[in-house]
Amino acid sequence: MKKLILLLFMCLFSSSILAQNDNREDKKAFIDALLSKMTIEQKVGQLRLISVGGELTLDKVLDQIEAGEIGGIFNTVVEPDLSRMQDRALKSPNKIPLLLGFDIVHGHRTVFPINLGIASTWDRQAMALVAQVSADEATSDGLNITWAPMVDITRDPRWGRVSEGFGEDPYLTSEAGRIFVEQMQKPSLAEKNSLVTTVKHFALYGAVEGGREYNSTDMSERKMFQEYLVPYKAAIDAGSQAIMVSLVTVNGVPATANHWLLTDVLRHQWHFNGVVISDHGAIRELINHGVASDAKDAVRIAIKAGIDVSMNDEYFLQFIPQLVKEGALSEDDINNACRHVLSLKYDMGLFRHPHRNLDPNLDIETMFADNRLHRKEAREVARRSIVLLKNDNKLLPLSKDQKIAVIGPLADSKRDILGSWSGAGRANLAVTPLEGINHAINNPKNVSYALGANLSDDPALFKFLNLYEVTAKFDDRPVEKMISEAVELAKNADVVVAFVGEAQGMAHESSSRTDISLPESQKRLLRALKATGKPLVIALMNGRPLTLVDEFQQADAMLETWFLGTEGGNAIADVLFGDYNPSGKLPMSFPRNVGQIPVYYSHLNTGRPHGTENMGKYTTSYLDSPNEPLFPFGYGLSYTDFNITFSLSATEMQQNGQIIVTAIVENTGNREGTQTVQLYLQDVTASVSRPVKELKGFESITLKAHEKGEVHFIIKPEMLKFWNDKMQYVAEPGKFNVFIGSDSTTQNKQTFTLLNN
Ligand code: BGC
User: Max alpha carbon distance in the chain (Å)?
Assistant: First the structure.
């Protein structure tokens, strides 16, 4: 009976009061009518995102929802709670459905590689697959909005959130961001499995000084518009309907209080019409930043700057009505913000289908049922994410009949392989490298395993990692005992594969490091393994570029596996045994030492470049280190070899013309493989100094042994544009270098001239 009444109510509700169609006039009329009925408190309710936790129990939240005081929920990922929340929203005075959000950063129930890994695929299809599967799984569980993609570019691997982004480059990151938005939101937000994206963190979070979490940023406007702002803009141009504001100070003004950033740039220059969401706690933090005197002042400043929605709101409801009454905020300020939220909900079709994808009978076990997970897709993307860094004497691939000693603190850790921001996944469903190797090998007796060392000897680190839940275990056997056990196994094996790196919690929010080398416990283990004289494969598991000069020397072969997600162990085995020929490329330079940071490929030449005309004194260099990183951006080997040559269709280009680049790729080895051909451009002489190279295109090609193939790029004037000396976005006539190659160090060069017509 209850159900029948509810059904009747829903029909009435959807067909009459909140009927909607796609006509813009109707939408405006609908929202105007709704706004005219709403009290100021109810409008503020729409601007509040709340999560259950601490003193805010589910019951309290449900009551607030019914009172119309909450516009969206986040961090609840289980039915029937989501359904109950939406049901209660439909009992609120204006019956406005809720946004149901979660951080779906690299997968949902099925966890894909961390974003640095996804970026390492340099494969648009792989990126699209991750986004599609994530959106499908999340919406099937009832969610309708996510706080992703994260497109903060960074050149500082000390920053822990490096793992969440797509690396150092504006173009690669923009491509990933664009694809995530397009695939998650789908062509229409009203589609059943469309998930609203929230591009973040606007802006410059990845440029925090010293790589220290939450630190300030300061940057010229040219560098911002030329590099750091590019990916946010790309995601907005792709249609992202929400944006999250960064926690940091941008050129002296916290982003949350930054009218220039949130209104002049975002709304006026970029014409963003969606919802602007503050990050967790950011409103209160304006007091610490020293731009607001108290919480009430912080609310006023944030709204005036252009914030619509307060994440985990503490103060909006408390102060906005009062601020409006006092005239410090106008009702129009609040109407504007509220209109953005209602407009989004309207476009999502929520008023018509508030229960879209919600199923109160969906139990938690069903959410993780095998037939709902996407293991095949996860394995496909994971193996594509692995980067082969070294392979002396073609040690890899291994034979499935070899005796293998699998060693290391990350060889059998189910939690770590999921990486950070994988809260909706389940560690017990993940495949560890040890498990993956055991699945693949012909005779399981040939595989032996030892921990060998703890991730670190430092108890404080474990305390930190386990602050909120136990994610890292400490083995309290004596260090020597663990090492000698590992060494014994190594001596009895044909080859040693050591899984070393970081715990997932070491490359996360709030986990900056000043020393990005392997912890001493793991270095000690590697030294002991090396001393056995057995061939050594170092398989890295980590969420940021590490400094690996010693390990690079020690290893016969080296793999960067990042944190690969649910199917990580199987993907690693695929690569180790050659069932998949590795093709990943680094999306970020790996420094030799922390002193080189920031080290990135697209730097300026300086007036005294080192290593071309002059290697000596008075050139830009260090006394104690080369300038070049250990592994450059775009780098990654294969089990086969490729040769790349190229030609241009012309040596001159009209202002409205184009040049076609034809690259001939030859697989010169004797097994099939995939190469990612990279296009870099350099504006040789311009009104401002331009980078030595900028990535402008990439395409993969798979070739059989000794096969040849072609890859094409079209260079258009749009790709030559930059912010000139007058801060105009133009392409200046003159000479351009075109580089084509397999990584950013390529010197394979041709030249053309952009004409002045
Ligand atoms: C992070 C955001 C995230 C939010 C909600 C914040 O701490 O900075 O990236 O979306 O929490 O989980």
Answer: 87
If you measure from the C-alpha of residue 257 to the centroid of ligand 1, how many angstroms do you get, rounded to a whole number? Answer: 18
Atom of ligand 1 nearest to the CA of 201: 9
pTM of the model: 0.96
Let me know if 186 is exposed, middle or buried by CB neighbors in 10 A (0-12, 13-18, 19+).
middle
Ligand 1 atom with minimal separation from the 148 CA: 10
Residue 120 confidence (pLDDT) above 90: yes
Indicate the pairing of strand 495-501 with strand 404-407: parallel
Residues in the chain: 757
Mean pLDDT of 6-26: 49
Other Cβ atoms less than 10 A from the Cβ of 590: the count is: 25
CA 49–ligand 1 middle distance (angstroms): 12
Q: In this model, does residue 475 exceed pLDDT 90?
A: yes
Q: To test ligand 1's pocket by mutation, which of 509, 511, 512 has the most ligand atoms within 8 angstroms of CB?
A: 509
Strands (E), 81-144: 99-102
Query: What average pLDDT does the chain have?
Result: 95
**Cβ 653 vs Cβ 710: under 8 Å:** no
DSSP secondary structure code for residue 631 in this structure: B
Nearest CA to ligand 1 atom 4: 280
Sheet holding 557-560, edge to edge: 387-391, 557-560, 536-541, 495-501, 404-407, 447-450
Ligand 1 centroid to residue 414 C-alpha, Å: 24
* Rounded-to-integer distance, Cα 533 and Cα 20, Å: 72
**Which among 199, 216, 193, 388 is positioned nearest to 290, based on CA atoms?**
216
The catalytically annotated residue of 87, 136, 141, 279 is 279
The residue ranking higher by pLDDT, 534 or 470, is 534
Helix (H) or strand (E) holding 540: strand 536-541
> Quick check: is 141 catalytic?
no
Note the Cα 731 to chain centre separation in Å: 30
Residue nearest to atom 8 of ligand 1 (CA): 279
CA distances from 743 to 116, 397, 714 (A): 17, 22, 19
Q: What is the DSSP letter of 17?
A: I
Average of pLDDT values for 201-230?
A: 98
Q: How much is the pLDDT for 9? A: 43
Query: How far does residue 421's CA lie from ligand 1's centre (Å)?
Result: 9
Tell me the per-residue pLDDT of 268-324, one tens digit each, with 9 for 90 and over: 999 999 999 999 999 999 999 999 999 999 999 999 999 999 999 999 999 999 999
For every residue of 406-426, DSSP letters joined together read EESTTTT-HHHHH-SS-TTS-
Ligand 1: list residues with CB < 6 Å.
Answer: 103, 147, 200, 279-280, 509
Ligand 1 center from residue 280 Cα (angstroms)? 6
Nearest C-alpha to atom 7 of ligand 1 is from which residue? 280
φ, ψ for residue 654 (rounded to 5)? Answer: -75, 160
pLDDT at position 614: 58
